[in-house]
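dude i think i finally got it to work??
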Amino acid sequence: MAEKKETTPSVWLTVQRLLKFSGGLQAWLYAAAGVVLIQSALVIVSNNFMRRLFDAVSAGSHDNFWHYLWLVLAFSLLTVPFSYLRNLWAGFFSERTLTRLRRTIADHAVALPVSYLEQRHSGDILSVLNADLAKLKTLTASNLLDLIYNVATFVGALAYIFSVSWQLTLVSCLSTPLIFVIVSALTNPVQKRSEEMQAEIGQVNSVAQDSLAGLMVVKAFNLADVLGNRFSKANRQALQRGLRIARLRAVIDAVGFALSILPFIIAMGYGGYLAIRGLMTFGSLFAFINLLNYVVNPLGSLPNLLASISEASGAAQRVFQLVDHGSERVDGKATYPDGGKAPVIEMTHVTFSYEGGTPVLKDVQFSIEKGKRVAIVGPSGGGKSTLLKLILGYYPLPDGQVHLFGRDINEWQLKAARGAMAYVAQDTYLFPISLAENIRLGRLEASQADIEQAARLANIHEFILSLPEGYQALAGERGARLSGGQRQRISLARAILKNAPVLLLDEATSALDTESEAQVQEALDRFMVGRTTVVIAHRLSTIINADRVLVLDGGKIVEEGTHAELIEKGGLYKELYQRQFELDQVETAGAQRN
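look at this
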């Protein structure tokens, strides 16, 4: 069975959707379109008065001359307020529609499933917000109205010159069908090429963002040339797409210009002959040639206009593809169930893989009682962090595989489920705001005293006070102004402030030195009392006091028990512990020598 090819929606379907999205803002565009139609009518009427004016000159009629001269002047001045209103109302429509689009994209981006965000680079999404919306601004602010103006003036001018001389009109416009055929043939590929180019620009932005976000690593490992080559390759591909579009548009411009002058040559030749024979007045010939501009010039500018609209349509498709992607579910119950004696967290026969790949977890099942501290350990890549992602509901699972407080996670409202959990990731993220605001994100209504208490528990309070700005000091982009350990302790303070009944720690002390780790671990030990806690630990010395240890290897739980039980058993856990113990001794000896 042959594969079904993807079809690109037509330009007009895209425009219709854009107008539908704008909702009540369409009124501004329709008002501007009404002004455009009036402007088109003014062009025809003004040229009719110009025709009468020149006929009055030819006839030597003084009264008619002044009458039509004032009318020409009056109608010319009328174009000023109408031009102002057109641009003003089009601007209202364009700016407000784009503001709504930006808001929709921003809101939807944070509601997208983690699976989608992990597959699509953030730089590509930023490209939608920047480059694609810039093209839509051109479409909504001018392209659509230019098209209406050109079409309306074309129809009005054609009807008028036909009434002046249908013979001259037919002879002059013989090339018009040819122009339409050629324009259509040349502009059809532009939308597809433009959409491809915008995708390439998204790749360029992604590489550039990687270089800036990982600047420290780039410098430390001398990766400037490597990333420079990646950027150059992506940039070349975008350039090749751009050059193809440039060549197409160059051909369109050249053909459009050549075809646009042909009707004038015919009109001047044959029209002059008719005027000499007395079959047409000089005023009629003048008005004919002048209005022929509005018949031919729209056709000459039509290729560029249609190409620009096609490019904007390609950009709109990328915007709507992002907006159309399904968001995380928002249904479910928001209240805590009376779980009774049910485990706080329970997994039953969980098998999971990313996008149909090799299973990361294989038939995993365990339960955690209220107030218990469970540690998950194992070799790198064994699926430990994936377990936490599933508990947080980042990836959907079949019914009955994950339960929180005795309720299937698929029955939970995800926002409510995550509200019951505080999460500290291995890769901590701080926003470029003050340290106090970063901590307050754990509980937005928290007081300054609450923030400082959480900072004390995370062993970061004294450091913050040592800064000139104190708690108002800026963290910098991604917390760049802080060390790794400081960032992690700010993140811990945020989780402590949230005061959720469940605490998830994904190697939360991995970036700390031995002394800081001991201090933070002591604070965490106090904070975790009576709180259900899941700890993924790199340093096994930090989980000795765990109520239970799960050893995960190759996606399976291969051992389970307390620290003492697993050491006595002499399996993988004991091997990992001894290896870590030897490493700690080496680090301690090195620290003593320094």
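The domain at 427-499 is CATH 3.40.50.300 (Rossmann fold).
im so relieved honestly
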